[in-house]
Amino acid sequence: RNMSSAGPEGRKKMRECEGLIDSLVYYIQGAIADHEPNDKATENCVCILHNLSYQLEIELPESYAQSIYMQRRNISNNDKTPGCFGTRSRKVKEKQQDTPLPEEKSNPKGVESLWHSTLIRIYLSLIAKSTRNYTQEASLGALQNLTAGTGPMPFAVARTVVQKANGLPSIRAMLHVSHPAVKKTAVSLLRNLSRNTSLQNDIAREVLPDLVSVLPECVPGCDIACETTASICYTLFNLTQSSSHNARLLLSAHGLPKVIAISMNDSNMFSKASRAASVLLYSLWSHTDLHSAYKK
After folding, report:
1. Residue ranges of region Disordered (predicted)?
2. What pLDDT score was predicted for residue 110?
3. Do 58 and 165 lie in a common domain?
């Protein structure tokens, strides 16, 4: 567990170690089957897998990267916009989000297991069944790592979490735990998931009221709670930016007074949450059909 957090080279060596990842997954599967999701060894295994999934998309061996990104390059080549940072059409971006991963192997080995739907379901099962905070946080954190980035892997994992494995109820429950690090990681995961336009309505329907309910009445006084608040605001921004219906959901959940109160905080120390709330308010105002409701 300690070695898995030793940096890129350490992660690379451990991912390449034959049988290591398979053994960790095998142990966790056994613990879940035996209804023992709270033992210390399971926590250690999940924490190792969490660390090994960090920056996975960037650090993948070339052989995997080529097969995963082949389809994405084909889409990019059809885009005639010049320059690395040229404005891409929304259509192209949506195509990239919907680019599937190569077909999953029924018996993944080694590093392939890290993004396989089997392990995604294991994480969701631990989130639901374990009462150990570190195990919950590591499971959420592994999914957060796998859904970070803009390539086809993060979006494919996001679709598995939301649509194939029905993971939102388990993640939603973590918004209401007392442990601040677990709550923060759950929100960060939802923020990643909410970037996928094809999943936004599902996420809004399942968790938007809960996100609003855990928003504080004003900017909180500690760093971790402040970061969580900012992350909630950016998640709500993603969910409502292109959807008047979702903005109305936020309104009916009585979210607007909270967002306004957070945005009006003058302290530089907590500007991250205030800035995020202001960005959300600016976006909400773009739904002109809701202006009269906002004014009320």
Report:
1. 79-109
2. 87
3. yes
